[in-house]
Design goal:
Layout: H1 4-13, E1 19-24, H2 30-45, E2 49-54, E3 72-73, H3 78-86, E4 90-94, H4 104-111, E5 115-120, E6 131-134, H5 141-151, H6 160-173, H7 184-195, H8 200-207, H9 213-226, E7 227-229, E8 235-240, H10 242-247, E9 270-277, E10 280-287, H11 293-300, E11 304-305, E12 309-314, H12 318-330
Parallel strand pairs: 1-2, 1-4, 2-3, 4-5, 5-6, 8-9
Antiparallel strand pairs: 7-8, 9-10, 10-12, 11-12
Bound molecules: manganese (II) ion.
């Protein structure tokens, strides 16, 4: 929970109409988009002038999200985005703990004189903001946005757009209300969001039953041909080259969800998904229960995140990156 003064200080900052920019991390997921767009609409309803800027574009299957068309994509409109950030009174950092998570756009935010406010649930938040609401026990930034609106006494401003956006944020970051972060409070909040117009069946179909045929066949190909179990361990991984992604016509964001599949094997406790792009290897780590993949991501793969879900990257080849990962477990066993 946040300290009382976090709410009061934020209310103070928002006491007069302000120019506000809301930002989230690169390669935005359901939580980044849902929480940012919900916060953007909420602040607009409070009378502020608000723009949401994402470092890069969202996957096609999020284009149905309410207000998604208002999203400004930094990569596509750099000068316009810079002007907004440099002219802003407040910049919100949502769903990321370090400006590096926004790549080049992070430098723009760093250089601006705006008051920075972070609302985020990742471990080890950077200290650049003047106000930080960080809570790693929270399921999602969407949950934190709800708690903030609730604490401000502004729950009646939650309309069906905001409810749908926050529902999507919480749904995706809890793995459909399944991960250990899914508390009683999460279910209570989701109940309120449904009562305010979020439609669980519609969101489920938009977010999860939205594959292209190629995308589903690619998942099948990965499970049959690319998933490896490291012998004598409880670890599995999938690694795909840029060429394979191109052969199946897989776009950015369309591998989302694949990283979780090896955990469906009862005996697998942790797994990694490696994908090659632009001479870099992006890595997603997933685990069950007490197996901490955040440590692996931080100490060996320039990343981090949560205990059961983290990300990392490598500038080595796909083969060498996978070898490095395997050796972490082979040499220790
Ligand atoms: Mn999140």
């Amino acid at each position: 929970m946040f300290q009382k003064n976090t709410v009061t200080e934020l209310q103070e900052l928002l006491s007069k109409p302000k120019k506000i920019v809301v930002t989230s991390h690169k390669n935005p997921d359901g939580d980044a988009l849902g929480s940012s767009l919900a916060w953007t609409k909420f602040l607009t309803k409070l009378g502020h002038s608000v723009d949401y800027i994402s470092p890069n574009d969202m996957p096609d299957y999020y284009h149905w999200l309410p207000l998604s068309k208002q999203t400004i994509i930094y990569e596509k409109a750099k000068d316009y985005a810079k002007n907004l950030v440099y002219g802003a009174d407040i910049v919100f950092s949502l769903d990321y703990n370090a400006l590096g998570r926004m790549d080049e756009f992070g430098d723009v935010v760093k250089a601006s004189k705006a008051n920075k406010v972070m609302i985020d649930h990742h471990l080890y938040p950077e200290e650049y903001p003047i106000l930080t609401y960080s809570d790693t026990s929270k399921s999602s930034t969407g949950e934190m946005i709800y708690e903030m609106i609730y604490a401000m006494g502004e729950e009646d401003k939650i309309d069906s757009d905001i409810a749908t956006l926050l529902y999507t944020a919480i749904l995706t970051d809890t793995g459909s209300f399944a991960f250990s972060c899914t508390t009683q409070r999460v279910h209570e909040i989701v109940g309120v969001l449904v009562s305010k117009g979020a439609d669980p069946d519609a969101v489920q179909n938009y977010v999860y039953n939205c594959f292209t045929e190629n995308r589903l066949r690619f998942f099948g190909y990965c499970l049959v041909n690319k998933m490896k179990l490291i012998p004598n361990t409880k670890i599995a991984y999938i690694g795909v080259s840029e060429k394979e992604l191109e052969e199946f016509g897989i776009k950015d964001g369309e591998t989302e969800g694949l990283a979780n599949y090896p955990l469906k094997i009862a005996d697998i406790h942790a797994c990694a998904f490696f994908r090659e792009k632009d001479k870099q290897i992006r890595i997603s780590f997933r685990s069950k229960a007490d197996f901490d993949v955040n440590v692996i991501a931080r100490e060996h793969f320039n990343g981090g995140g949560h205990k059961n879900a983290s990300g990392g990257m490598s500038r080595d080849t796909l083969e060498n990156t996978i070898l490095k990962f395997e050796n972490l477990f082979i040499s220790n066993s």
